[in-house]
Specification:
Length: 100
């Protein structure tokens, strides 16, 4: 259904379902855009690894000093889950890049 704006008809509203999905999506992105996504994903994976390493060091220090590490370990678990998602995203981008 078309809407009106200032008395004029507008186009149909945009819906997410209008976008192509599946194997055709990577073909819509240029190699330059994929290269940018790849660089960003690589940065995020690297930063995630650094955060995990830092958290592991903090936990070791807390442990050594006799402090409770429960909350720090819970945070580390969350960081690891997020890291898996970042690495999966990087893998997906690498596959898309290979297809483009």
């Amino acid at each position: 259904m078309a809407d009106t704006f200032l008395g004029r008809k507008t186009q149909e509203p945009f819906h997410q379902s209008d976008l192509p999905h599946g194997p055709f999506k990577p073909l819509l992105m240029s190699r330059d855009i994929l290269r940018q996504h790849l660089a960003q994903a690589e940065r995020y994976v690297s930063m995630g690894r650094a955060h995990i390493n830092r958290q592991e060091s903090l936990i070791a220090e807390l442990d050594r000093d006799g402090h409770d590490t429960g909350a720090a370990r819970a945070l580390l678990d969350g960081l690891r889950v997020a890291q898996v998602a970042r690495e999966q995203n990087l893998d997906r981008i690498l596959r898309d890049f290979a297809k483009a």
